[in-house]
Amino acid sequence: MLKRLLGMSLCCGLVLAVACAPAEEQAAEQAMEEAPAAMQMQLPDTTAAAVWSYLQQEDYRANWGMWPGKGKLYTGRDPHGALLTTYANAAALGALTGKAGSMPAGAIIVKENFMPDSSLAALTVMYKVDGYDPANNNWFWAKLGPAGGVQVEGRGQGCIACHAAQRANDFVFTSSLSQ
To answer: What angle do CA 107, 112, 118 make, to 5 degrees?
Structure first.
């Protein structure tokens, strides 16, 4: 009788374990899928201070790619600086390397502007925000000092006036986004 009860208990336990396994596996799979999204930082709002904070938290120099075909301290021109280093987040790099024709919302381009002696003078940032400024391809512009001091933010008229010459290339000068 004891053997029979033990056998039934083991059998019921095995059935219960098998019946519960798919639900547990499904929950584990869902948690694994949600983990990368939870680890990704939320994009900043449209203030230069928020963008600066985001860039620092992202550690863009270590974690973003450099502009393809450009290295550190390549020759620049006014108004940016004598030497430049340009970084792009994954959204921007994907559009650039995929020749998407335009940058997607969430694309961020950071151009470090250096003096002739290689000292950092400023950071200029282009940040594509859906619905922000439709007349100018939804770019938020910022110019920040080396320590994050705001020099230009928002709909920077000087930025827009210059970059409008590249409207067909989504306001981007450095490389073609299509071909």
So the answer is: 165
Q: Which residues of 106-144 are buried (b: 16+ CB within 10 A; e: fewer)?
A: ebbbbbbbbeeeeeeebbbbbbbbeebbeebbbbbbbbb
103 exposure class (CB count in 10 Å sphere: 0-12, 13-18, 19+): buried
**144-165: average pLDDT:** 97
Write the secondary structure of the chain as one string of H (helix), E (strand) and C (coil): CHHHHHHHHHHHHHHHHHHHHHHHHHHHHHHHHHHHHHHCCCCCCCCHHHHHHHHHHHCHHHHCEECCCCCCCEECCCCCCCEEEEEECHHHHHHHHCCCCCCCCCCEEEEEEECCCCCEEEEEEEEECCCCCHHHCCEEEEEECCCCCEEEEECCHHHHHHHHHHHHHCCCCCCCCCC
Q: Over the chain, what is the mean pLDDT?
A: 84
Q: Which residue is associated with the tokens 């798919």?
A: 22
Q: Which of 35-44, 95-104, 108-117 has the lowest mean pLDDT?
A: 35-44
What CA–CA distance (Å, rounded) separates 131 from 100? 19
